């Protein structure tokens, strides 16, 4: 009943009641065994000077002392820098709260400062005098002055003089002081602090012995500070009160034993005190005894917690940019690491392993699994004596790094029991309002024990209980509570909860109504809570992980922006707003996106955002944030240089290395096939100092215009000069933007993206950071050495349209020209080296057109050797060269097969069929290209002695004029159907490959082209032709029908001295004397035909060539080379040459064109006959005619027939061969010669009698008939006669002309 009354009194009553001022958030269960020492700096703050001394003092946190019985004791020291005096009042309740020692550290320069240090030390002693056992003062004085600073009248100081001999402490200073020079190493300081700790132990041990010797009936009642009035007026001699006194004293003795290193005795005393206090219902002290049991058990089970505590105290916040999962302890990440310890799992053989101390937190699970030694002894079985010797069953607690010998005591709490006992203790504390601080500290201690046991749920339960404890705290203490809860949640991996409480602490700093809001601390805490919200300072990692709760993350970043603004750090506010837009853009609605963009624009107006890291005062680095998707890049293309500026490899002719060998075996081909080409490698090349281009397609996702300024390319590798670009993007409209720059060096250029300046923020938008698009991480472009640039001009006018040929994109200029067939012209091309530093050292000119290569060579001609002599071209210099253009055309109309075989073997030279009007030309042209030649205004007069008008001569047999008027001419398609459709259109490109400088050495050049549009108009046309014998044997007449296809009069020069005028669309017939083809040429053609036939027979076995074809081709070439028809359009300077290339000859024409293989020697009346000689005889006179033949060819002639025939020529195209009544021949007029070997001669003689007078002509000819059957052996064909497959007729030219007169 009295206990209940006391409980009610403790919750009631008014006035100020004693309570702890604030909880000790750093306290752990192991601190129950520590001696509390205040370590305080006094005097002026000189942290750098005194830091070494503080470190040395704190290093002595544990000593090993032998007691009076010689047993070793482990004594632990806890140094604190501040200790409220009211906490000493709770020293009877829990002795580890009592301040037992005092150490002050200070520095002085003179006696006055030393006196002040002593005064401050003594004032601290007075303040904590009720509990202090010992105190020490550590003073650092001035160093000895160097010798060179001593004056002349001063004596040098005595070397090695002690500082305490120079300065003395005041008389009222009763503590022991240690003096050191400022630069002293303090080598003996640790040993002196050890002696100080040993002194504390002996005082404590004496107090413990005194307490243990007190008699049970004479012990006084120990009280908590708030209990003093609860027992006023109560009967203290009652049985319950006596048991309460004994139980509390026993608990106090257990605390002293625990501090004195007697852990086993403390366990027994705690158990006995717990049972005694439970029996009287003393809940507050029952909770204290249960907490003591937990502390004593934890000392034995988890000795490594002392080192872990040190690590936690010195740990810093997580590094910026690390992943949120990296801060989770390893033991919480492994699911099998959270094994709970149950009784009976461990045997006594594992004791040594259980006592092993390690500083690695990963060993916690292994240690905690070995701490429950099976024992069934209960608290009632433990002897209840206050003597340490009677209760000690194991040796003292081990020093860290050493193993504990012996078994764990049987009354130690198991791992899971520690949690239960802490829970009971907290429940008992919760019954007392003044014990709220004790309850809070107990919950924190229990949390740290559960962390060591890998019990995260129990940790969360204890921490959650702290929030419901009603404590009167200041704002700073509330913040401290939230920070401690945050730290403990982080240790168990509950990052989300840790972040929540960290954010609460941040908001507490700037709570509404606060007198001095600390925005700096608020910002620091909110920045540290990023990990719990699965955020990090690096926006790239946030985007990569894509984890967390977007709504919470957005709210957190907005709060952080507010804190940065209140701090006046505009750069930070801009950076965080940029971070928000970059990481949470996809998680915001369009309205939110627009609002955030406007906010960013307003923030950046105060401080512009830049893509550089920001370093805070505490060393935290804020990585750069970039608006990668604002504007949104839809496409990115690296553009090649313009076609005429693209570099090309200079082709080098490869040497013939032998035959190509193929094998299906792939040697080392697996690696080659598996090696993938770089997808980001650009196939084309860029050139140093040439403007390059990258095209991007952008879209503005905002509902208002977005201005993007200073947009540049981001590159790496070679030096690259980017040109800025500015553009205004309309909402939601894709826009193409061209970004330009110039590579300054050669090598590999790494195109990584582009930079922008929008909404007041400069951003580096790299391709590898653009999510949701198939962009490579970068583009690699090879930059080759600089190439010269040239400008090209021509002397011809430009055309309206460029070429339609392939590679038309390399054309830089054009030229147009209209020519008549056979006309020649010259175009001057000027090349200017536009480079300011590079010479033009290499220039190659090539021509490509839409005609065949052979024809192209005839139309276009360049003197390349003369061009090479003009190289090199200096910078800004120029050269020119001539392009000769000839309007090549087929002036000869093709003949039908019938006309080619119309020649009679009997010697009819009047081949009228071959002169029939015939034309089969089919050409095409462009009507859009006007003719440059119109109708002539004036006709040019030619000399009358060398020209004649083309007229129709009715007296000629086969020279029929050709009419070019519609409806004229013979059947079929005649010249009358020819018009503008006969013009030809030729497209050509003069391609220039050029290079110079280092690029030429590397093998690179450029290529450009000049486009030529050439229109060829019809001029003269040879419609028919024939070959007639001439007056001399060495020549023949080529008779041509020539048509004027132009629209004006044409002057033809067909020999050196003869001209003829042809009206427009008219034709004329002209005879042209031509030298016959020599026998040597015929022999060479024969030899070439034999060799080719032999090759065909041996190698290809195809159809053999005919000698007739070779001879016909030879004669055609002979005529084309010797006959050139020059034409001139009268009234103009337009002139040209009509060629007979491609003329086709019949067999009879070939026989007249080539020199006969027979050599004739004819005599009449034994007089040799000379050409055009006068031969006369009388009627009835017998005249002797002798004919001698000689084979001049290299082959024998077979089946020859020599014939003699007299006729009369009426000179009107009529010849009379029926002269049986006028001439008689004595002897055969035809003889057969089966074989005439080479160089063989045959002679035939006959007599001729003329019956009537007149002029007679003798036609003497030798004909050959085709061989009737083939030789038995093929070799006979090669050695056979001149040509046995064709019929030939060889005549004596000119015919013999005999004048017969009367007798």
From TrEMBL:
Domain called Trs120/TRAPPC9 TPR region: residue spans: 458-605
Ranges of residues in domain Trs120/TRAPPC9 first Ig-like: 645-754
Main subcellular localisation: Golgi
Span of domain Trs120/TRAPPC9 N-terminal: 231-305
Domain Trs120/TRAPPC9 third Ig-like: 1034-1152
Annotated Gene Ontology cellular component terms: trans-Golgi network
Biased composition (Basic and acidic residues): 328-339
Keyword terms of this UniProt record: Golgi apparatus
One Pfam family it belongs to: Ig_TRAPPC9-Trs120_3rd
Domain Trs120/TRAPPC9 fourth Ig-like: 1158-1300
Compositional bias of kind Polar residues: 313-326
InterPro entries recorded: Ig_TRAPPC9_Trs120_1st, Ig_TRAPPC9_Trs120_3rd, Ig_TRAPPC9_Trs120_4th, TPR_TRAPPC9_Trs120, Trs120_TRAPPC9, Trs120_TRAPPC9_N
Superkingdom classification of source: Eukaryota
Intracellular or extracellular location(s): Golgi apparatus
Annotated Low complexity bias: 374-397
Region Disordered, residue ranges: 313-339, 374-408, 923-950
Family: Belongs to the NIBP family.
Protein name: Protein brunelleschi
Protein species of origin: Drosophila kikkawai (Fruit fly)
């Amino acid at each position: 009943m009295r206990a209940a009354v006391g409980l009610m009194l403790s919750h009631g009553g008014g006035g100020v009641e004693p309570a702890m001022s604030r909880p000790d958030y750093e306290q752990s269960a192991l601190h129950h065994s520590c001696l509390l020492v205040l370590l305080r700096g006094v005097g002026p703050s000189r942290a750098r000077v005194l830091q070494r001394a503080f470190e040395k003092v704190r290093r002595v946190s544990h000593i090993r002392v032998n007691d009076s019985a010689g047993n070793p004791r482990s004594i632990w020291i806890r140094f604190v820098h501040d200790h409220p005096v009211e906490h000493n009042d709770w020293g009877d309740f829990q002795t580890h709260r009592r301040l037992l020692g005092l150490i002050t550290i200070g520095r002085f320069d003179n006696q006055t400062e030393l006196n002040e240090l002593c005064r401050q030390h003594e004032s601290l002693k007075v303040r904590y005098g009720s509990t202090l056992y010992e105190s020490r003062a550590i003073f650092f004085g001035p160093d000895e002055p160097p010798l060179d600073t001593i004056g002349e009248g001063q004596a040098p100081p005595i070397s090695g003089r002690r500082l305490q001999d120079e300065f003395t402490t005041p008389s009222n200073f009763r503590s022991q002081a240690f003096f050191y020079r400022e630069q002293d190493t303090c080598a003996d300081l640790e040993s002196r602090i050890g002696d100080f700790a040993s002194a504390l132990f002996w005082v404590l041990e004496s107090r413990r012995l005194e307490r243990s010797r007190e008699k049970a009936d004479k012990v006084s009642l120990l009280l908590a500070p708030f209990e003093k009035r609860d027992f006023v007026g109560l009967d203290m001699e009652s049985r319950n009160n006596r048991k309460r006194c004994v139980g509390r004293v026993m608990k106090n003795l257990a605390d002293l034993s625990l501090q004195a290193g007697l852990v086993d005795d403390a366990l027994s005393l705690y158990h006995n005190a717990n049972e005694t206090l439970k029996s009287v219902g003393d809940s507050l002290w029952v909770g204290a005894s249960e907490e003591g049991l937990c502390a004593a058990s934890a000392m034995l089970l988890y000795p490594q917690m002392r080192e872990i505590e040190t690590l936690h105290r010195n740990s810093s916040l997580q590094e910026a940019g690390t992943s949120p999962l990296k801060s989770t302890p390893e033991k919480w990440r492994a699911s099998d690491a959270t094994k709970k310890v149950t009784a009976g799992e461990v045997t006594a053989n594992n004791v040594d392993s259980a006592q092993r101390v390690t500083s690695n937190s990963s060993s916690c699970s292994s240690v905690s699994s070995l701490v429950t030694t099976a024992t069934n002894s209960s608290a009632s079985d433990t002897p209840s004596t206050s003597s340490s010797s009677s209760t000690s069953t194991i040796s003292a607690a081990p020093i860290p790094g050493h193993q504990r010998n012996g078994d764990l005591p049987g009354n130690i709490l198991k791992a899971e029991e520690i949690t239960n006992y802490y829970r009971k203790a907290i429940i008992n504390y919760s019954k007392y309002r003044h014990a709220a601080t004790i309850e809070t500290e107990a919950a924190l201690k229990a949390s740290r024990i559960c962390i060591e046991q890998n019990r995260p749920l129990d940790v969360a339960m204890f921490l959650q209980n702290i929030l419901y404890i009603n404590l009167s705290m200041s704002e700073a203490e509330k913040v401290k509570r939230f920070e401690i809860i945050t730290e403990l949640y982080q240790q168990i991996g509950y990052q989300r909860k840790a972040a929540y409480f960290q954010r609460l602490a941040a908001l507490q700093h700037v709570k509404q109504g606060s007198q001095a809001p600390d925005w700096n601390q608020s910002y620091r805490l909110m920045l540290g809570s990023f990990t719990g919200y699965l955020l990090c300072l690096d926006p790239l990692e946030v985007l990569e992980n894509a984890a967390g709760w977007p709504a919470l993350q957005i709210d957190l970043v907005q709060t952080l922006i507010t804190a940065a603004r209140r701090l006046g750090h505009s750069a930070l506010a801009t950076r965080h707003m940029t971070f928000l837009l970059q990481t949470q853009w996809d998680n915001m609605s369009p309205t939110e996106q627009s609002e955030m963009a406007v906010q960013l624009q307003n923030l950046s107006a105060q401080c512009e955002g830049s893509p550089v890291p920001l370093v805070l005062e505490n060393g935290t680095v804020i990585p750069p944030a970039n608006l990668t998707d604002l504007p949104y890049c839809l496409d990115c293309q690296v553009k090649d240089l313009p076609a005429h500026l693209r570099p090309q490899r200079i082709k080098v002719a490869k040497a013939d290395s032998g035959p190509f060998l193929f094998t299906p075996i792939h040697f080392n081909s697996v690696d080659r096939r598996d090696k993938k080409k770089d997808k980001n490698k650009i196939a084309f090349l860029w050139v140093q100092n040439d403007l390059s281009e990258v095209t991007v397609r952008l879209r503005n996702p905002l509902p208002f215009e977005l201005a993007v300024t200073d947009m540049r390319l981001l590159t790496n590798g070679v030096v690259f000069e980017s040109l800025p670009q500015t553009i205004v993007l309309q909402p939601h409209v894709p826009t193409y933007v061209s970004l330009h720059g110039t590579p300054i060096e050669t090598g590999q250029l790494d195109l990584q993206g582009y930079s922008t300046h929008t909404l007041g923020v400069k951003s580096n938008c790299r391709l590898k950071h653009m999510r949701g698009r198939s962009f490579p991480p970068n583009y690699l472009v090879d930059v080759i050495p600089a190439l010269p640039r040239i400008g090209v001009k021509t002397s011809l006018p430009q055309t309206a349209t460029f070429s339609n040929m392939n590679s038309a994109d390399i054309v830089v200029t054009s030229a147009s020209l209209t020519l008549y067939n056979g006309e020649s012209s010259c175009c001057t091309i000027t090349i200017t080296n536009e480079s300011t530093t590079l010479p033009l050292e290499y220039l190659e000119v090539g021509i490509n057109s839409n005609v065949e290569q052979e024809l192209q060579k005839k139309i276009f001609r360049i003197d390349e050797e003369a061009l090479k002599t003009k190289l090199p071209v200096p910078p800004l210099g120029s050269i020119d060269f001539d392009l000769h253009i000839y309007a090549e055309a087929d002036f000869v109309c093709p003949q039908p097969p019938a006309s080619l075989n119309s020649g009679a073997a009997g010697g009819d030279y009047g081949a009228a069929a071959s002169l029939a009007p015939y034309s089969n030309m089919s050409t095409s042209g462009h009507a859009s290209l006007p003719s440059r030649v119109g109708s002539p205004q004036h006709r040019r007069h030619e000399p009358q002695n060398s020209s004649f008008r083309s007229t129709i001569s009715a007296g000629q047999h086969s020279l029929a004029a050709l009419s070019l008027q519609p409806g004229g001419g013979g059947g079929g398609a005649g010249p009358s159907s020819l018009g503008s459709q006969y013009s030809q259109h030729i497209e050509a490109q003069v391609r220039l490959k050029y290079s110079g400088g280092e690029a030429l050495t590397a093998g690179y050049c450029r290529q450009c082209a000049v486009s030529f549009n050439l229109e060829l108009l019809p001029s003269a046309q040879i419609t028919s032709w024939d070959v007639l014998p001439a007056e001399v044997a060495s020549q023949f007449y080529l008779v041509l029908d020539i048509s004027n296809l132009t629209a004006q009069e044409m002057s033809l020069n067909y020999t050196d001295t003869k001209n003829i005028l042809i009206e427009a669309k008219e034709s004329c017939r002209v005879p042209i004397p031509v030298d016959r083809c020599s026998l040597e040429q015929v022999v060479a053609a024969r030899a070439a035909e034999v060799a080719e036939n032999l090759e065909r027979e041996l190698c290809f076995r195809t159809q053999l060539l005919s000698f007739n074809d070779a001879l016909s081709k030879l004669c055609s070439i002979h005529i084309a080379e010797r006959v050139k028809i020059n034409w001139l359009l009268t009234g103009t300077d337009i002139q040209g040459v009509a060629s007979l290339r491609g003329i086709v000859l019949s067999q009879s024409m070939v026989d007249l064109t080539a020199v006969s293989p027979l050599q004739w020697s004819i005599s009449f009346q034994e007089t040799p006959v000379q050409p055009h000689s006068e031969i006369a005889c009388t009627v009835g006179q017998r005249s002797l005619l002798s004919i001698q033949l000689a084979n001049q060819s290299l082959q024998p002639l077979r089946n020859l027939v020599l014939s003699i025939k007299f006729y009369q020529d009426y000179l009107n195209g009529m010849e009379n061969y029926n002269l049986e009544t006028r001439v008689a021949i004595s002897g055969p007029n035809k003889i057969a010669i089966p074989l005439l070997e080479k160089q063989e001669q045959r002679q035939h003689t006959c007599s001729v009698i003329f019956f009537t007078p007149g002029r007679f002509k003798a036609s003497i000819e030798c004909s050959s008939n085709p061989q009737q059957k083939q030789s038995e052996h093929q070799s006979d064909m090669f050695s056979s006669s001149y040509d046995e497959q064709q019929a030939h007729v060889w005549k004596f030219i000119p015919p013999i002309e005999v004048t017969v007169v009367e007798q």
